[in-house]
Write a structure and sequence with these properties.
213 residues; alpha/beta; Rossmann fold; 8 strands; magnesium; transferase; orotate phosphoribosyltransferase activity; PRTase_dom
Length: 213
């Protein structure tokens, strides 16, 4: 049986969400690959994507009470993954936030289910960790606890120091970060694709310079 991580990598390539070439990262590095989850922008691809999130969550066996998707990309991810989990018999509430506080109606910045118990944050990637930091603050202000973070792809590369952005979040907040796939999975996939040998070599060179293990 194929691993969902391998299926996700192949799916992201087929959807042209995972691209190979030369791309400048936020850190100013020239990366040989680029992942943009914002390009999952139709109903079918979002349905597939959120089923992969559900796969990763269930495989992790992480216990949580509420899914929380930070604005903006996390909103559709939280809703879609809640639907995917419900289809498998795991019905969980979800919530998200607004960037701007609403001053009428129910007011505030939080929308959806109340944040209580253990809250799992869902987002596309972790770059500087800003979105996670803001999410943790909102969860704790509501009297709940962050249970972990689930993302699509862990690039496994150094941040400003020797740790990756994912490792920094795990260390700072004491919570696990799970991903649908990681750079390890991407490399393993490329190793099975002779036509992508040049991409594999470029990724290996980049990893040797910026990667963490």
């Amino acid at each position: 049986m194929r691993d969902f991580r391998t299926d996700f990598i192949q799916f992201a390539i087929e959807q042209q969400v995972l691209l190979f070439g030369e791309y400048k990262t936020k850190a100013g590095r020239l990366s040989p690959y680029f992942f943009n989850a914002g390009l999952f922008h139709d109903g079918l691809s979002l349905a597939h994507l959120t089923r992969f999130y559900a796969d990763a969550i269930q495989a992790s066996e992480l216990q949580f009470d509420v899914l929380f998707g930070p604005a903006y990309k996390g909103i559709s991810l939280a809703a879609g993954t809640a639907i995917a989990l419900a289809d498998r018999g795991q019905n969980v509430p979800f919530a998200y936030n607004r960037k701007e506080a609403k001053d009428h109606g129910e007011g505030g910045t939080l929308v959806g289910a109340p944040l209580k118990g253990n809250v799992l944050i869902i987002d596309d990637v972790i770059s500087a960790g800003t979105s996670v930091r803001e999410s943790v603050n909102m969860i704790e202000d509501a009297g709940a606890r962050p249970a972990g973070v689930v993302i699509a792809l862990d690039r496994m590369e150094r941040g400003k120091g020797q740790l990756s952005a994912v490792q920094e979040v795990e260390l700072e907040y004491g919570i696990p970060v799970i991903s649908i796939a990681s750079l390890d999975d991407l490399v393993a996939y490329l190793e099975t694709q002779p036509a992508m040998k040049n991409n594999l070599e470029a990724v290996a060179r980049y990893r040797a310079e910026y990667g963490v293990h």
